[in-house]
Amino acid sequence: MKALSKVVVIICFISTIIIFAQKSYPQNYFRNPLPIPMQLAANFGAVRTNHFHMGLDLRTNSQENLSVVAAADGYVSRIKVERYGFGNAVYITHPNGYTTLYAHLNKYYDQLDEYVKERQYKDEKWEQDITFSPGQFPVTKGQLIALSGNTGGSAGPHLHFEIRDTKTEECINPLLFGFSIPDSIAPVISGLYWYDRRFSTYEPGANGIAVKKTGNVYTTDVIQVSSPTISLAIKAVDKANQGFNLGIYHAELLMDDQVMYSFSIDKVSYDDTRYINGCIDYPKLIKDKMSIQHLSSLPGMKLKNYSPPDLNGIINLKDENVHNIEIVLKDVNGNTSRLKTKIRLNKTSDQIFPTNKMVKANEGKTISTENAEINLSKNAVYDALNFQMSEKSSTNGDAVSNTIVLHSPYIPVHDNYALKIKPNRKLTNEEKANVVVLLDYGSDTHVVKGKWNGDRMESEFNRLGTATLLLDQNMPSVSPGWKEGALITGSSLRLKGTAKIGDIVSFRAELDGKWLRFARMKDDFVYVFDEKCSKASGLHTLKVTTVNTAGNTNTQTFTFQR
Length: 562
Hints:
Number of helices: 4
Structural class: mainly beta
CATH class of the largest domain: Mainly Beta
Number of strands: 48
Largest sheet: 10 strands, antiparallel
């Protein structure tokens, strides 16, 4: 009876935490920043590659240039203009201790837009990160601050909206602030997984269990496991009322009515957002595009305010009896789903044993091959793995080293590791100046300009894959969207950038000898005509200088008429 009372107290305590989290933030202080009802395309804490989603993605009905208004009184404290990430963004600091952010914008309101434009021309730099004092751009609740868009790392028109603690800059779940978004649908569960935790969640990996729904409760057949030490993970989404797959807000795991683990996504800082890789089955996300969240703590997962430190979710089965399992999922509105099942230790299987190249969480490791070395910090991995590193001949015609195989792109690393690679032939000093490192992690590549350390090039990456030294003697270039000397009747000029290896890391355009403001839109460079190039101003000469990752510089000249 005492044990049951203790369980009830624990469950009530966790429920109280959820209710308190929602009621400790000011309710109805912030308004909807759009002129249409709030509809979510993504919520706070949704799983993304290498980060949590840090705000709300508000639908704009697939349109751009909707009015974006200040969610409350305050002042514009910062703006950003960048190629990826937020694109064009506005930060508004409010007197109640919070800051709101509005991202992927097309245009700032006129007064602010003109200020930013003047700064860009003064600095001769398109990308900007400007902070303001309280008296420069004050705003009132509901005041127009921008037009919505699709800039930066956006895959479609929408407004990204965040609420941050002004002092700590932690992002807080905006749904805890009382926005009116109808939601009567409980989270949907589609999969359950167990892991042998005697060594690592990565080896041998996930064991899937079919889930079925009976009435209002999800169930599975009795789970037969072959390890006395296991953990569980859940595949589920929050559907809300709008059809989009949203992230899970809160989960609890109980065995025999005892709480083993719980998490709630109330707040996350950008410094910690990469810890999502220790909260999910990363191999499943990268390999199979499946979002599966662990109901346990991985040894290297150090995200604050996510799960209670005394509940690690590791299940130790000391007998072969059948044990009851219950998983409870909740959204911010309290809509609840439950999965009830049973678990039993069957015949114990063989255990995976570490090798001399084992990398463990919270312990650094240096591993070498004949021509390469990787140095992993103590924060590099979330769980143990037998690290595999080897060399093979490269098939890339620009390669000047073997290809170094760094375990697998399906295993995450938390911070940057140092990688040293020796070329496979003697390079001249001129050639050394044009060597870059290509990391191929399957879904994409990353090229960096490393530094020579003796006879090896040293670079840093935060993903695994295959790495190769390349000699890049190719020039970057841009291609105009008009014929030489043509009369331009449209509202803009567009140049398409090309770099065979790496990227265009520097772009400068001069019109008749003066800097011209081109915006970077993915791989394109776009100039919208302004007073710097008015109509009926005759033949113009546009000089464009580009630099690629390797440092190769190319200057091109184009002409056009207005």
